Amino acid sequence: MTGNQFVRRLTAVLVVVWGAATVVFIVLRVVPGSAVDQISGLYGTAEQRVETRRQLGLDHSIFYQYWLYLKGALRFDFGRSFYSGRPVTDILVDTMPVTIELAIAAGLIMLTWGILAGSTAAVFRNTKVDVGLRGLAAVFFSIPWFFSGVLLLILFTSVWKVLPGFGRLPPTMTYEPTTHFVLLDAVIQGRPELVWPWLSHILLPAAAIGLTTGGYIARITRASFLEVTSQDYIRTARSKGMTRRQLFRVHVSRNAALPIVAVAGLQVGALLGGAVVAEVVFSYPGVGKLMVDAINRRDYPVVQGAAFVVAMCYVLVNVATESSYPWLDPRLRR
Amino acid sequence: MLSTHESTVPPILEMVDVARHFTSRDRTAPVRAVDGVSLAVHQGETVGLIGESGSGKSTLARMMLRLETLNEGRVIFDGRDISNLRQRELRPLRKEMQMVFQDPFGSLNPRKRIGAILGDVFRVHQDAVDLDNRVGELLDLVGLSASFATRYPFELSGGQRQRVGIARAVALRPRLVVADEPVSALDVSVQAQVLNLLTALQRDLGLTYVIVAHDLGVMRHVADRIAVMYLGKIVEFAETEALLASPRHPYTEALLSAVPVPDPTARRRTRRIVLSGEVPSPSAPPSGCRFRTRCVHATEECASVEPLLRPFGSGHYAACHHPVLEHPSEDR
Amino acid sequence: MTIEPVLSVEGLNVWFDGDVSPAHVVRDVSFEVRPGEILAIVGESGCGKSVTAMTLLGLTRSSNARFSGTVRFGEHELLSLSEPELRAVRGAGISMVFQDPLTSLNPVMTVGAQIEEMLRLHLPISRSTARRRAVEMLETVGIADADRRARQFPHEFSGGMRQRAMIAMAMSCNPPVLIADEPTTALDVTIQAQILELITSLAHDRGSAVILITHDLGVVAETADVVAVMYAGEIVELATRDDLFSAPQHPYTWGLLASIPRVDQPRTDRLPSIEGQPPSPSAVLSGCGFRDRCAFAFEACAAHPLLEERSSNRHLDRCQLPVSGREEQRRAIYP
């Protein structure tokens, strides 16, 4: 990437994040119900309310509040929670990794099922298998996450009592985070017994999002495969005497991957959004649930901080995806 | 300039020192697709633009009709400078100058019937009276029966589609028709039919043609004068017979000798000139004479001084420091 | 002493099942090629020449294609080979160069890697040997700076260079037969000459037979040793190049030759052309396929003519016009 392009990319990142942060800031203060009411309660005296306002820093002018917010954001300091008093940064350190784990797990499910379904449909084009898979993908993709989440919840925790229905780990299990990522900590702390419970807890929420977004990946995969296999260079490769498997592995997959990667990268945004819903349904302690609770409580610093960080993650993932294109497709280099 | 006509009638089209650059963000040097071309086309004649890929001939053809912007130079149509006219002002002029495109598949709207496609031409120019009859007449003019009006492009063969493209171009009886590779996408036997149609229409409707092609055989058959282009410049310009009998520019000579002729005995009579290397990139043309990197006669002068078009007898111009002066006698 | 043909096709028929009726795309095609010989199959679009070529390599096999006839290559009968057996022949026995080198090469693989792939598919050599040989092949086909070029991608090559690379790839295993399907159609005419010269010299040097598919009779005149003219799925004339051009026998050949605008002949008022259009592949032919467009059709043409020697030795045609009158008829169309 040239210096010029890098500067442009960086500017774009900053602009988007700033935009998201500003929108959140404004919406929080426009929405009815104030933080003061939440904390002082409906029966607080007038003096108490004034004092609360001062303590929360809400007595400053709105522009000053905005300025403080942005200044702090640059240092990743978003103040303290109105509710618990804990520094927002600490809260985020606890909760972001949870959502990241969930997004990665959902992403793996999305890609695995999407690519398998899409490529199978392409190979068996126009047969019942193809029609069936396409229908399935369309149905899955149309299901809203709260529906898929609740459905899975009922099926697997109530009807067939095989999986747990809430939390990240069993409530009886102790977990002292080092990296805040369970799998890594299981290795570092030497606690293999963490792995299976963690897996059984993350499976349902990840599936709730991954299966539905995977439907879209399946369609893109199918289309991409069909397009690639009709290309002239595949005919050339066949004329060289390659087996179907070799053709697939060497020629088809590398070329079909390009649009799939592009779409998958953009789907991360959907994953993050889906994570919010899944976390609420499954009481999974990630940033999504954190934000929902904080919004209900009008806990401004937490909402602002979480929104900022999530926006940044989304933008960075997009930048990373776009940066991978020249690497995947040599025609885009230089 | 570049004209063999001694008449006092002004040319129907004049290109004066026109240039077209394409800039791209990544590259520092712009691609000069057409780089200083001057040309005059007279009423009733057919001028051919020939060249290989990167020569700029298609770009030049589009510039003639203002379908491409001019970065430099002027286009003068019928005495009027149209270089800077806005699209709105150009619209009435479109009745006078039309284009036939290369791709008979891509240039017709696949969702419209032939009758509608042709009818649109009349409608756009506020001439929509008695459409059915006129569309029928138009189809007849290009050798298609009236039944074609209700068909869709995909139902037609390549040759038939190209006839429709020609019908569309001549519908409003323009004075100038620019045809960009009108027969390149067609089979040989169909090519002949379309070429015959073009020459017949020129005779019957008094058209002036500019034809872009890469096939010298086609050129010989239709063009009165030929401009040979290389990397954005005209390297030779002459009446067809003069160009073919005694080409002055080494590139023209090489082009001529490279054309495979359907006669095995012909090759034994002429010697083949095989050019070394490939066409240089249009974004970095060689200094001085652009052809020098592939030219057997190139000298130091060719690298430092760009040759200008010089006359070689009536209306024959070539841009070369070491032009070909002798031609072994052959039947041509 | 006659040399044995390296490939011989007899009575090849190809049908593609269509929505309405099957299309008889290749009708009873027979020809042979000898080592070092260049056979040109010439015809216009839809005549079945490309399908014939691809069928030799089994590339047209699919659920809706049917075949009959024999294709003898060495001890093999290609039409009846299984897919794995056919794969061994592709590239090593018969290899192919396609029309558009830009789309016919994988855009995300280096050129060198694609040539290496061909080598390693058929020869038991190591990666480094394959890499070396790939670079050597690029040099052989006249690409300068071959080592650096092998590590580049197809879009970094010019059109002519890409075609050279395709030829390098096709010839890398020294196949006895090379099929070139319109190898120069997408190229500039000055490059065309270079590529044709490359193909012919490679073939001569290595004793490979070349089947050259083209629509350009000029290319045929310059390059071919033997010519087969195809029309509506059939071979209508088959002769040595010199015989074909000096004494063409079939009215379609006359029409084709006459309708080419020649750079070496002065302009005429009207270019002769063959009226009408070729029949669609799904049409059922009754009698001679060219009958409807032929100026000389007569009663005998209602019977389907066979491809036979009628005029001179080793010059076959599929026309029932009496040989004695042909010269005069030909001059009426192609002076």
Description:
The complex is a heterotrimer of chains A (334), B (332) and C (335). Chain A has 334 residues and is mainly α. Chain A has helices at residues 3-30, 35-40, 46-56, 62-74, 88-123, 128-142, 145-159, 182-188, 195-229, 232-239, 244-281, 287-296, 300-328. Helix content of chain A is 75%, strand content 0%. In chain A, α1 (3-30) runs antiparallel to α13, α6 crosses α9 and α7 packs across α11. The model of chain A has no long low-confidence stretch (mean pLDDT 86). Chain B is α/β, with parallel strands linked by helices. Chain B has a single domain (13-96, 174-326), classed as Rossmann fold, CATH 3.40.50. Chain B has eleven helices and twelve strands. Chain B has helices spanning 57-64, 87-90, 114-124, 131-141, 158-170, 188-205, 216-222, 240-245, 250-258, 264-269, 300-304, and strands spanning 13-22, 31-41, 46-50, 72-77, 80-81, 97-100, 176-180, 208-213, 225-230, 233-239, 310-311, 317-318. Chain B has an eight-stranded mixed β-sheet with strand order 6-7-8-3-9-10-12-11, with helices on both faces. A four-stranded antiparallel β-sheet of chain B has the order 2-1-4-5, with helices on one face. The model of chain B has no long low-confidence stretch (mean pLDDT 88). Chain C is α/β, with parallel strands linked by helices. Chain C contains eleven helices and twelve strands. In chain C, strands 6-7-8-3-9-10-12-11 form an eight-stranded mixed β-sheet, sandwiched between helices. A four-stranded antiparallel β-sheet of chain C has the order 2-1-4-5, covered by helices on one side. Chain C is globular.
Structural class of chain A: mainly alpha
CATH architecture of the largest domain in chain A: Orthogonal Bundle
Q: Biggest interface, and residues per chain?
A: B-C, 47 and 48 residues
User: How many individual helices of chain C?
Assistant: 11
What's the main sheet of chain C like? 8 strands, mixed
Per the principal axes of the C-alpha atoms, what is the gross shape of chain A? globular
Number of strands of chain A: 0
Number of DSSP helices of chain A? 13
**Dominant shape of chain C:** globular
Strand elements of chain C, count: 12
Rg over C-alpha atoms of chain C, rounded to the nearest angstrom: 21 Å
What assembly state would you assign to the polypeptide chains in this entry? Answer: heterotrimer
The ordered H/E elements of chain C are EEEHEEHEHHHHEHEHEEHHEEH
Poorly predicted ranges of chain C: none
Determine and state the CATH class of the largest domain in chain A: Mainly Alpha
Largest sheet, strands/sense/barrel of chain A: none
Q: How far is the first residue's CA from the last residue's CA of chain C?
A: 38 Å
Query: On the 0-100 scale, what is the average pLDDT of chain C?
Result: 91
- Chain-averaged pLDDT of chain A: 86
